[in-house]
Amino acid sequence: MKVTLSGLLLILASCLTLLPSSELFWFSLNVIFQHRFYGESMPFGNKSYKSAETLGYLNSQQALADFALLIRSLKHNLSSEASPVVVFGGSYGGMLAAWFRLKYPHIAIGALASSAPILQFDDITPWSSFYDAVSQDFKEASSNCYEVIKGSWAELEALSAQKEGLAELSRTFRACQDLHSLDSVWEWLWSAFVYTAMVNYPTEANFMMPLPAYPVQAMCKIIDGFPSGASKITRVFAAASLYYNYSRAEKCFKLEHGPDAHGLHGWNWQACTEMVMPMTCSEESMFPTSSFSYKEFAEDCMKTFGVKPRSHWITTEFGGKRIDLVLKRSGGNIIFSNGMQDPWSRGGVLKNISSSVIALVTEKGAHHVDFRSATKDDPEWLKELRRQEVEIIQGWIDQYYPDLKRTNKE
């Protein structure tokens, strides 16, 4: 029997898999659960997001405890008390999977954490690494594409400063309503480039938005296809339109006050309370250079939610700078899977920690690509990655039953 518990959030899925066995046969059953405060799992109904008082229950520790209680309840109700559990997660869910194995080793025998940036906190990872990685993806696709995007921000700023600049940008970007600020244009473009780098999958997908295979390369092909006299603004708009309108269904774009298409509101709360990931843009980035200030970040969170961030809570709760020692001494049976096309990989575990804490790294992999449904067009490196994961997990289960049998005899 196999029971899958899943919590879906932003670009992540947290899955817990129950794997009972008998000497005669295997059979499976899939059950999906949501992370509290996401989807329809609202503890306080329509009032769940009304105040910091109710949102205070939205945090990683509560989510892990939910999963622990759910697994114990399922195993009891299914008369499967001796069945091993392996947890799976991608992105934030990958962090949850790894942390679950550390916090509840008596409940899960192993974890597969895909694209899990557990090192993206404090100053463990260079703050510019994420946006440097996004930029590297585009530079590798086309140096001209990278330079056009890098130069477009100054061109946008210069145009917006002109008397009719925002009106012209409204027309160029096919805004559903007249623009009142350049910020919305920057955010619209920024999101398109970042999310496209994350989901630079080798096959057509619709995880964030419907996109072709290798969408970064497709974006750069659009930019490089313009004549030499075309403006950078026109080129980046056309490239970003691939992300927002690959299906060609959109007649205009809601650049201001658009819907929360990716369910980010809950994550913004978590980022303002526990998931504090400092990020900057360096000179090597295709985005304008930027810095990070804990003080300014705290002020923004106070304005938005009325709370101050616990800036160092995650490293206090789950392990700090020497997380490798934590994993080596206290962890085991964890697979960290990362693809170097995914900018979140820079905050992930990229080297083996021990014989049972394994890093599987692929050069062309994107954001938890190994968790996507298999297709006939999957490249060989992706098939091999999944094969390795299955082989390692099978080894955990194969070891579990002799250990259980030996324990029962004692």
From TrEMBL:
One of its GO terms (biological process) is proteolysis. InterPro entries: AB_hydrolase_fold, Peptidase_S28, Ser_carbopepase_S28_SKS. GO terms for molecular function: carboxypeptidase activity; dipeptidyl-peptidase activity; serine-type exopeptidase activity. Residues 1-24 form the signal peptide. Pfam families: Peptidase_S28 (PF05577). Keywords: Carboxypeptidase, Glycoprotein, Hydrolase, Protease, Signal. PROSITE patterns: PROKAR_LIPOPROTEIN. It comes from the Eukaryota. PANTHER family: ALPHA_BETA-HYDROLASES SUPERFAMILY PROTEIN, PROTEASE S28 PRO-X CARBOXYPEPTIDASE-RELATED. Belongs to the peptidase S28 family. This is Lysosomal Pro-X carboxypeptidase isoform X2.
